[in-house]
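Milestone M4 deliverable, item 7.
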Amino acid sequence: MRKQKETTSEREILQDILAYYRAALDLAEKGASRRDLLRIMNRPERWLSGSFLGSDRMGRNALLSGAGLERETILDLTGDLDLLMSLSPVYSIRYLIDNVGYRTFAVRFYREAGPVLDSLCEEAAGFSSPESWISRLEDLLEYSLYKGEEEQKGQGRQKTGKKAPKSSTIKAAGPGVNVITMHACKGLEFDTVYIPGLNEGNIPSRRALISTQIEEERRLLYVAMTRARRSLTLTFLEGTPDRPAAPSRFLLQYT
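Output delivered:
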């Protein structure tokens, strides 16, 4: 039960942190989502009522126009979101955790919050753009959700007295296929690696607009390619007249 609670805490923390970064990224573009703003507005406590949230997505002006007596607090919140986008990930995550006060909130409500937050600070050091860091947070959350599901299945088997099927683990089932993201493959090696979908807009992402962001994604692809010990296959979609697609510019560098 303790392990399941720790996984739940990790998942909740990742959802909080990701909501902050998503809101920060979306605020200046299409407007931050009501869901993300509701999640972060009192984590840590700001005593915001949520009455200023008038639509599903809200930009800065819309937030402030409906703020009323909460205007100064909302100004502080949007200022914090702006800083998350202006700082590199290794500094922005520390700003969020320590300066904004998220750590104080997390240690009160989540088990083992300190080690999870410290691990995120270490993880962020490997990323240079907010977009690549957000993608990594999404991968971490996806894996945390997967762990939670597996733990629940394991508890269900214990309650019913059933043993886990042999196919439930790669070790028991023998050789198999591992489907993982490029962010999650760091430090791993495989005899054979396939990397599909190497098209412009996927890698580099449509969100990678400046040279540092594009270079970060180029390095990400290089890391994924070097996971192969013997065989590496790179693929891309040719597209159709109605939906044209171009191969990634990185393919010209590596092939």
